[in-house]
Amino acid sequence: MLRTNVYIDGFNLYYGALRKTPYRWLDLRGLCRRILRSGHDLQRIRYFTADVKPSPSDRGKDMRQQLYQRALRTLPETEIHKGRFVQRPRWMPLARPIPGILERILVDRVEEKGSDVNLATYLMLDAAQQDFQAAYVMSNDTDLVEPIRLVRQTFSLPVHVVSPHRTRSRRLEASATSYALLDHTLLPECQFPRALSDRRGAFHKPPEWDWT
User: What is the strand order of the sheet 134-138 is part of?
Assistant: First the structure.
């Protein structure tokens, strides 16, 4: 059996497969065990994300995310690695400018920083430290093409990519040992129990996540 690590781009997974579905209470261990090929033994899951902040349109999204991260911490194989969100004003061009009158508008731009870099860093570090014999990357971010290629070339280790999105990335496909689209029909089968407990006590799936 090959010792196998899975590296998950949390926001890529969320926007590619989970957003506006009732399957956001996702048991990553259950999902990873289903996507790993025969002969692979799940050793470690590294989950990359950033803490969201409440917004005027959704005051509770940070609390729901914290509950989900609490659920993930009940899985001994899973480690959470966090980037950050950066909010700054930026002038952006209008799609239909009025020449000489209104061509740009100042918007608050919110960008998630660090997840792709952190994923690439841990993938390379774990390969260098011989922490795995095979790796799976769950993302459709083409920024990961070069680190995937280098792990395969430098360390002669297989890196399999599973895209949460329904469209293929030819660049990622070319860089990986294998490439597949996530089977979304697995999501209903890979849900945490509605009620969980940890050292802090019992907690529950956010009721908002029962609806699309």
Answer: 78-82, 40-49, 2-9, 134-138, 159-163, 178-181
Residue 93's Cβ-count burial label (10 Å; 0-12, 13-18, 19+) is exposed
| Residues 124, 150 contacting (CB under 8 angstroms) | yes
Sorted by sequence, the CB contacts under 8 Å of residue 145 that are 6+ apart come out as 171, 172, 174, 175
Place of tokens 């497969």: 17
What the block records as the tokens of 177 is 């040992």
CB–CB of 83/114 below 8 Å?
Answer: yes
pLDDT in tens, 65-124: 999 999 999 999 999 999 865 566 666 676 677 776 766 765 655 566 568 899 999 999
Name residue, tokens 């920083």.
Answer: 113
In this prediction, residue 72 carries a pLDDT of 98
Count Cα atoms within 13 angstroms, Cβ side, for 69. Answer: 18
Closest CA to 157 of 179, 130, 181: 130
Strands 2-9 and 40-49: parallel
β-strand partners of 2? 40
Question: In this structure, what are the phi and psi dihedrals at residue 155, rounded to the nearest 5 degrees?
Answer: -110, 0
* Separation CA 87–CA 184 (nearest Å): 32
* Of 95, 161, 118, 123, the residue nearest 5 (C-alpha): 123
